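pasting for the record
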Amino acid sequence: MSSITGVSSYSQYLSLVRNLSGGQNSINQLSEQLTTGKKSVDLNAYGPDVQKLLDLRAEMAKRNNYVQNIDTAAPRVAATDKVLTSLEKTISEWTSSSTMPFNPGPASVTSVSNANADGMKTTIDATKSKLTIGARYTVTAVPSQTGSNGTFDVTVTDGLGGKTTRAINLGTTPPNDGKGYNFNIAGGPGEGAMLNLSFDTLKASASSTFSVSFPQADQVKDRAEGAMRDIQALLNQRFGDRYLFSGSRYGTEPVTDLMATKQTSKVTLNGAVVNADDYFEVTVNGKTFGKQVLSTDPKTLTFVAGALTSQINAASPTLPMTVSTANGIITLVGNDPGQKFDVSARVTNAATVENSISTPTTTQAPTTSQPQIDRFTLNGNTVDIGDTFEFTVAVGDPDDPFNQNYYTKYPNEPRDLPPYQAYTTRYTVTDTDFSGGVTTVAQVADKLRQQFGNMNPKPPVTIDALGSGRGIALTSTANADPNHPNKTSLFTTSAKVTNGSLENTVSVATLPPEADDLTDVPYKDPPELPFYDSEYLTKGTNSEAYRKSQVTIDDNRNLTYGVSSDDKAFQTLVQAMRMVRTAASNPGKWDEYSTKARELLTQANDQVRSVHAKVASDGATLEDTKTAHTDTIATVTDRVAKIEGIDQTEVAARLSSSMNTLQASYTVAGQTKKLSLLNYLA
């Protein structure tokens, strides 16, 4: 083989190698186009369209970023919209008369529980009373300090700071309206109530209790408190990593107890006077304060309440409250809304004496030559304040008051017998007499002798002299009448003691919410926080509570969205629901408070709707802007596709042709495998 021929053959070989390499590159390029859908991933391949392609890609990235921002904000706005829809529904329900009636409904009064019915038995006439609030009333009777013996100072307390006292003597004090005595409560939320009480018995120290409630108003209160808990839960809604209504305090639950007020509790000492060794105790937040009455102490509840108040105020560490006392009532007021404290109280009364009177007996029957003598004895030694001793001398027969049956039975006797008449002598141990030395039954017997001696008209009987001891002797002023030999008795005697139940009691009550601090509550503006904000007690102000979220949704366009739990609309709503609760807790002021509540609900409805409209507008703005971005992205996508896109069919055909060509090249390459340098040199 000539050298020229050899060189030519080797040149063909090198050309074949180049063809194989180029064919493979072509296949790789075509395969990449089919995989990516683009002509090339190398911008240099697009020549003069490079800048245009870069601009389009930048526009698309920007629009996609806006859409991503919108997709983050839109669900939060939608969740806020749902909460506001629920709040509007709540407001709508409470503006309905079926949920918020126009009156508190009738009062319900329990039967009176008389602790010592022999001493005092009372009833209440609800139809003649003016009942204004749910309360547990305590009626206490003690011997009057100013009235005559047999007169009692009757005190009524409601346990809420209300109290009234009037002197009553069933023998001399006429009822206000023919039946029943009116007691007008003064002080506390129950002020203005009037209780019409009747007394079947009032002759010794005693106490009675009964309760008043308003079932319909209580139901309204329960529903209002339930609604306020629902509102609190709605305003504490969480979406993703943040609370919807917390402003920019994303991890802070914004709302605490919507029903929080400054707690006001009353400790009412029921009774009128106290005895030595009586023990009173008040416990506040687990700390106990006690007062045992000494023999040298003033024997009044006002003194005891003052002593306990001084101890509470001197506590160390200082209790978070203001404590005061007046008229035997201790008032405890918390320093801050929502700060609760526990209060309990008890009283241990000193031991009392149970006295009795022996059954009167006739120790000397009357004859024509001697009078009749009856005797009875006051048993025991000492007495208690409020004990009542009495005896009755009766002349004649109560079943035959005008002696007609006797005259019929004994027609021959003259008709000159006196008609039936009873003479009752009664003495009650008063605190004044007790302090003056009337502490034994013998001294009480002398008081009965004095009372008997002062009777007018006087009975036809005399009593033994003062100082005769605890035994009392009654002697008729005449002997037996010989004209009436069948009259074996000139008088009859009965005696009785009613042991006074002068036991002091104590009641504790937390006052219902009042409107005094709600009627003109100023709105809190940024950065001040309303009372229900979780940071109100710790910070008082925080501008972040009002700061809303902001999102960029388009070129030079930011959207501020979201609602703060401290928004004026929610402040009004909370105030409205608190006023509903206040109205339900104070039935006596139902008209005043419920009218104010309805006014606030109307304002809240308008304000919440306004807020809701803004949220709905924000949602629509986000949706419309996203749609615009989506349309723009679609247009840009088409323009990019026209620059870098491929015809899938054409590329596939070219790929197939290139693969066939490459296959043929490999076949030719296989035939040249025997070509070598020796062949070439040969």
